[in-house]
Amino acid sequence: NAGVTQTPKFQVLKTGQSMTLQCAQDMNHNSMYWYRQDPGMGLRLIYYSASEGTTDKGEVPNGYNVSRLNKREFSLRLESAAPSQTSVYFCASSASGQRTYEQYFGPGTRLTVT
Amino acid sequence: GDSVTQMEGPVTLSEEAFLTINCTYTATGYPSLFWYVQYPGEGLQLLLKATKADDKGSNKGFEATYRKETTSFHLEKGSVQVSDSAVYFCALSARNNAGNMLTFGGGTRLMVKP
Could you write out the three-class secondary structure of A53-107? Predict the structure, then answer.
């Protein structure tokens, strides 16, 4: 059982370049999330999708777009990368409707923008 | 808004020492509380959780008790091992949270020396 998978694992971009981070889950979860992790700041929510067909902004959405392609897949796009977007990005998923349901995390994508 | 505050690390202990990582929260209503652990190079994994006041979550020798009166959820372990070296995150999920979103603390790095 793969759980939550992310690609790529590492990426280096130049300022202004674009890229899409891919995420897929095989647990039939309704909800999916994108976080960024920066030193000393924990994880901050970028966007989430409570169910297939819906997406909403989180705490730090500026500079990002998302697509919930289907129930399994949730992608994060950087249209014009900036050095401030250098971070580790995590995708997560959970069963929806119950606040006690845990979130399952992918292994992360380490992104460097030069 | 909701927030989680953790003690700053790193916390350095010798093997078999007692561990406490403090966590306090601010939230409206009655949130669910979680501890996640992140091993080097990996995503976050749920360590334990508590869903109501006075509940005790436990797993792998770790424990935390939901204290509503002090708005705390401190993580404890009686005897740490080198394999416990990781970053620990306290998080909450608040009531009326249709997206099951989590608010994370900044993380505490634990280093256990043989």
Answer: CCCEECCCCCCEEEEECCCCEEEEEECCCCHHHCEEEEEEEECCCCCCCCCEECC
Consecutive sets of 10 residues in chain A, 114 residues long: mean pLDDT of each?
91 97 95 90 89 90 95 96 96 79 90 96
Question: Hey, what amino acid is at A79?
Answer: E
Candidates B1, B4, B10; CA nearest to B71 is B4
Angle A54-A57-A61 from CA coordinates, rounded to 5°: 135
Q: Do A103 and B45 touch (CB under 8 A)?
A: no
Averaged over B92-109, what is the pLDDT?
A: 80
DSSP chain B: --EEEE--S-EEEETT--EEE-EEEE-SS--EEEEEEE-TTS-EEEEEEE-STT-EEEETTEEEE-BTTTTB--EEESS--GGG-EEEEEEEE-TT-TT---EE---EEEEEE-
Mutate to test the interface with B, among A43, A49, A93 (most CBs of B within 10 A): A43
CB atoms within 10 A of CB A62: 9
